[in-house]
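Design request, tokens follow.
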């Protein structure tokens, strides 16, 4: 069933896709699109304190961290509207579904509200679509209604694989599809965001992440269809307003 749906989506993409751009809303504030992110392996507690302070000051949409930091982030952002986001199965997506589920549940217990999970990239490329869908669906279930963002790692995928990943993520119940981890040599592109928007329509949100370091790039991604921007350069982006 999922294979047929993917084949139909690929065919539709080949026949109908055309690059599009949308207007920014009148109430546009770029800070409200930004997931203020720190995922480097040498991040310290002081680094976490700083990004939480910055997120509070600039009213960013979310702070996104590795799971070990989510108890601290939950405490530091308590009483704010800033979402507490965590990565799951990061950065490779190659751990078992059971490991991803445990990390999701553990993070949820410590206050995580959004989960940026890396899909099983090898399974997708091997066309084991049922495994990919189960992997995502189990994390979605474990998140208990909180938003799951599926990281596709677009730099490693063909066009057909990107289409397939979007279809699977939607069927599995993801709220977002996300371009990249930022750890695979390349990040978000306008073309990938436009592809993801075309395939998912209005059913799934888009997060552009990886290599977005200035306001011009961030705005271009939003115009292409992104609903969120994942970046460690949020201060520089909002400072350009």
């Amino acid at each position: 069933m999922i294979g047929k749906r993917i084949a139909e989506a690929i065919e539709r993409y080949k026949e109908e896709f055309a690059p599009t751009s949308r207007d920014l809303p009148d109430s546009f504030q770029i800070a409200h699109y930004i997931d203020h992110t720190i995922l480097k392996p040498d991040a310290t507690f002081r680094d976490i304190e700083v990004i939480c302070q910055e997120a509070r000051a600039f009213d960013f949409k979310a702070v996104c961290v590795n799971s070990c930091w989510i108890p601290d982030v939950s405490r530091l952002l308590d009483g704010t509207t800033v979402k507490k986001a965590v990565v799951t199965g990061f950065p490779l997506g190659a751990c078992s579904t059971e490991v991803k589920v445990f990390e999701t549940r553990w993070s949820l217990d410590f206050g995580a509200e959004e989960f940026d999970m890396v899909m099983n990239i090898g399974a997708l490329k091997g066309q084991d679509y049922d495994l990919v869908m189960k992997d995502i669906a189990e994390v979605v279930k474990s998140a208990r209604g909180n938003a799951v963002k599926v990281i596709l790692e677009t730099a490693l995928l063909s066009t057909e694989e990107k289409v397939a990943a979007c279809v699977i993520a939607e069927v599995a119940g993801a709220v977002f599809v996300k371009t990249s981890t930022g750890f695979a040599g390349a990040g978000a592109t306008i073309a990938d965001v436009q592809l993801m928007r075309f395939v998912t329509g209005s059913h799934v949100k888009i997060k552009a992440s990886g290599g977005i370091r200035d306001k011009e790039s961030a705005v271009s991604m939003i115009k292409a269809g992104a609903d969120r921007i994942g970046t460690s350069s949020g201060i520089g982006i909002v400072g350009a307003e």
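Comment from the thread starter after seeing the answer: thanks! The CA atoms of residues 137 and 172 lie 5 Å apart.
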